[in-house]
Specification:
Layout (H helix, E strand, L loop, with lengths): L7 E7 L10 E7 L5 H4 L13 H26 L5 H27 L12 H6 L7 E3 L12 E4 L4 E4 L3 E3 L4 E3 L4 H31 L10 H35 L3 H5 L11 H9 L36 E3 L4
Antiparallel strand pairs: 1-2, 3-8, 4-5, 6-7
Helix pairs in contact: 2-3, 2-6, 3-5, 5-6, 6-8
Membrane topology: Multi-pass membrane protein
Keywords: Acyltransferase, Membrane, Transferase, Transmembrane, Transmembrane helix
Enzyme class: transferase
Length: about 325
Amino acid sequence: MKSPVHRCRDVEHNRGQSGAGGGTSCLQEEQRIPISKDVITSSSASAMWFIRDACGIVCAIITWLLVLYAEFVVLFVMLLPSKNLMYSIVNGTLFNTLAFLALASHLRAMCTDPGAVPKGNATKEYIESLQLKPGQVVYKCPKCCSIKPDRAHHCSVCKRCIRKMDHHCPWVNNCVGENNQKYFVLFTMYIALTSLHALVMVVFHFLYCFEDDWTKCSTFSPPATVILLILLCFEGLLFLIFTSVMFGTQVHSICTDETGIERLKGETGKWGKVPCWEAMQIAFGGPFSLSWCSPFSGLSCKKSPEHHVAIPQGEIIEEDVIEIPLN
């Protein structure tokens, strides 16, 4: 994914008094450093990423349990007892495919590095190795002591600065950022489609049971069948509304090239935005194709050679705003 155009702004630098006369002030251009993605990406970006957060882990487990509950009710309460074999095969195949893609997208969103900036690289040696021009300014995150690229924000849960961070989602136990936004969008889309499909089947099953004998439309007792279907209906309706809103919000964020945290902080319009279709291609990894809908794109069984970026060691610079050249 290409880095966004870095924003520039003019600020007033107050200079000390010169030996010949009084104090002087001049306007100079202050720029966020144009660090390329290859430089700021951690050397362990290809390794497994997992956030050890108790709340996030519990929410992720609950997500899987709710999907498995829907799977149980759809298969054992509605489809297997059905007398229409073709109805069971078609709906069973469709529902299981959507549920599988939803869980696969959840795993990719949870276990993909969202775009974390390496910790502790705010050293004099590292900044000098970037070969920046005089007058440029770099910003240090005071929490993780890293050089903050443009549009990066610190996550208190991940304890890292995340490139193009939208928000931290406990349901996927991860931040939604530059590298995993596609999988989060797919997760919300497939959960919404799965919920909609389950609701439609519940309605048809209720109508079938009302017309026929309740004892014949399910292998469970009528009270148990009603309770299981009502719980599934409530779950499906709740998650259909929630994930549909999240899906629309994420697509809107991609098309407008502004994240949720940027809107909250009023940082919109401070960088060169890309057109909607180009932003979609950047987020989904290339021109439009079926791979946009696949949570498995980018996976490979072959190990690619890792290119480690050596970060010069040294003491962390105390200042949060660092001007080039260094003193």
